[in-house]
User: Fold DinB family protein from Streptomyces auratus AGR0001.
Amino acid sequence: MPTYVPAEAHGDEAGALLAVLEAQRGGLRRAVLGLTDDQANERPSASELSLAGLVKHVAQTEQSWLENAQERPHSIERTQDTWHLSFRLEDGETLAGMLTFWDGVARRTEEFIRSVPSLNDTFRLPEAPWYPPQARQSMRWLMLHLIEEMARHAGHADILRESLDGKTAFVLVDEERAAQQG
Assistant:
C-alpha cells in the first residue's frame, strides 16, 4: 500500500519520480513502526530476510546507486562474500540508526536529482556480469530503478510484518495516522 503524496508536491517529472520513490520508502518505513530491534531482526519466514535487514539493504543500495550516478567510488564495498551483510544488522547497528542513515541517503538522492540539468543525463553503470561493458543509463532510469527496488522490498516488508504480529499495511496506516494526530 503506497503512501499518498499530494499532486502539488510533484511539480515536474523529477518531482513526480521523487514523490513516488518516497511513497515506496514510506511503505517500508511503515512496516517497522513500533518494533523493537529484536522484533525487527526476527526472521519469521523460511527466508533469511528480516525487517531491519531490509531497511539496511535498501538504504545501502540507494546510497550505492546514488554514488554510481555521481560516478563516485562506493563508500560501502560489497563482494559476493560480504553481500549477505547488507541484509542484517551488525554489532552496534540499530534499526533507528539505519532509519536515520536512510533519511540522509534519501535527502542526498533528492538533492542530486534536483541538481541534474536533465533526467536524460547519463552515468556509467557499475561493472557487473549483467551489464554490457561501459553501459550507460539515464537519471530517469536510475529513478525508475530505485522505485522498483523500494516497491519490491516494501512488499517483502508487508509480508514479514504480518508474519511477525499480524499487522497489515491497513492497520499500520491507521496507527501511523493516529500517531501523527496525537
